[in-house]
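Standup notes
- HV: blocked on the assembly model, inputs below
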Amino acid sequence: MPNPARGKIEIAQDECKGCAVCTDACPPKVIQLSTTLNVQGYHPAQYLGDGCTGCGICFYVCPEPGAITVYKWQDEEVQPKQHRAA
Amino acid sequence: MYTIVQQRPDSIYDLFERKDGDQHVTHYCPGCGHGVIHKMIAECLDDLGVQDRTILVSPVGCSVFAYYYFDVGNVQAPHGRAPAVATGIKRSRPGSIVLSYQGDGDLAAIGGNEILHAANRGEDITVFFVNNAIYGMTGGQMAPTSLLGQKTTTSPFGRTLQNEGYPMRVCELLAALEAPVYLERTAIFDSKNNMRTRKAIRKAIQNQIDGLGFSLVEILSPCPTIWKMTPQDARKWLNENMIPYYKPGVYRDKTAPPTKSIVTLQAASGSSSAASEAGQTPATKVPADNAVEPSSPPPAPSRRTARKEVPLVEVPSLLGIRATERPGETSGSAALLGNYNERSRFFDSTVSPAPPRSEAGFFPSTVPEKYQNPQIKIAGFGGQGVLLLGEVLAESGMLSGYRVSWLPSYGPEMRGGTAHCHVRLSQHEIGSPLVSRPTILLSLNKPSLLKFLPEATPGALIIYNSSLIDEPPVRDDIETVPLSATEIAEKIGSPKVANMVMIGGLMARTHLLSKETVFAAIDALVKNQALIELNRRAIEAGMQAVLELEAVLQS
């Protein structure tokens, strides 16, 4: 099995306002704006699907509190460190 | 296995139960700093486990709606009074964590007295002071924190030392007081500074949990909409213009043992500066020795001598009456008033205002009777150019010889929520600019259509942006015209000119306004020359689209 990317992100397409601050800030440049419009009339940011390191920088520059969710790869045997009580 | 490391904080509601707009998103503009700061505060409340005993005092300003976002106890205070309200809450409920969230117009202007005394009393509260150097919600007036030379609606030639004095540095001011335990200034513009902000927010809240006393974090924050910039340019502007004057750093920290990494404000307490480089952000490129000398003013003439050198501006010039109309006037103040004359330049254009008309045949004969004396409502989300659309209609209506009125909506709803304005074009004197029963509705997004459709009179004309409204309006007593304004605008070059496409559609359908007058109005209202041509093409494309639609329907 090939090594999976160290992280991944999910962007709520209808919450994004297309400000493109995350696309600039992303170190591996794996976020870009969609060519289609969302319900608000913006071009939402999209994860290109590969290359995310799970650094969380996009989360801390994004002005929408709920738009981005960041995941990090954990090996099965390692107990995942919970960010908070879910 | 992927595990979540960052997500919407628990202290932020899942659904924002505001009366307008999409309840999944904040009302803030794209690229606004408030959302970032909200997220960091909420995340901190989660991590420190104090959500259940936190009470947030919302201010007046764009962030007035903070109570819709934070799942904590909420109180909304009158303008500038948040520190006083927070004092009352903290003293009556000492176990609670009381946060005051304020903007610069709120804290530094009308609330200057409140913050000074709350800090001086050393109240055990945490204040988040969001400084964007302008009044955002009310549309861009000058704030005490506006920079010298910064153009705002109330300082159209730029803030001057002679008139308005120096921008106010709140952290330095409060650092002159004995009581505060923690004062830090940070900024929101890149990931490094955002993380410093996050750290400062956590420390300020932790201080209150530990019962240490008054903490304030000043956060420099971009306001792309009011600064009239893209989110990227706004962050660049903040870095290049605000950071040199408002230097980030720790101005007071009584919680930590004195180490070299802490920049204390020794200049304010009388001793000379001994700054360390460790407290500086590399990104800000501020020389370390300047960091602790906020009292050193930028090079400028002293107030007293400078005041004498400034020529007095006469009242007629202030009112925008041109120098050419005042024989004998020297050209000095005319040059000073260049911007005002620029604003009214359509009076010099080839289109002259139409002469007064007779009552019969007041509207051109091409305008069907049902479209005469229209009461127009224009609605969409903040940022779609709804207000400009209305202004262009009113200006061109004026050039067409109609009596006109334009009334914008006002308030934080403008940001991201449903913005709207009222326009009347009339042959009679207009008693009220308010349009409560529109005969023409221009709707640019779905929430605005749902909101205003019930208000439309029977027989009303509804032109809606079918790019963003997937369901046509349902009412059998109205005329509807779908116009894919955002898609057409994108083809021309920018989705921002969707508003102009809508004007084109209205012109083609009603014949109320000629292309000549609308173009003249755009020349007068659009400041960016590069956009004028784009706007003109958008109007022509909108007209074309509606004419094609009518041709299809007739055949």
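- HV (later): unblocked. The domain at 367-554 of chain B is CATH 3.40.920.10 (Pyruvate-ferredoxin Oxidoreductase; domain 3). Chain B has 20 helices and 14 strands.
- Next: hand off to the docking folks.
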